[in-house]
Amino acid sequence: MGWGWVIVTDTLCEGWQAWGEEDAEGVQVYATEAEAEAEIEDEFVELVRNQIESGMEPDQEPDAFAIPLDEYTRGRKAIWARKN
User: Whole-model pTM?
Assistant: First the structure.
């Protein structure tokens, strides 16, 4: 295992994108999985609250997930093919 955890969002066009990647400070690294998961939950609760306040249907689950830093590859994409 690596020396930390990152929070990643999987995008259709750009693949995996770590939180903070576009900021001047760089990728945000968390000491533990629990710390990263807590950050995801905090952000998700705020997102849902904002969606409800603006009259939108709230998301059911976060689209971000935590992975060990040494498993993170920027832009990683999984391509699924159906076998006939």
Answer: 0.76
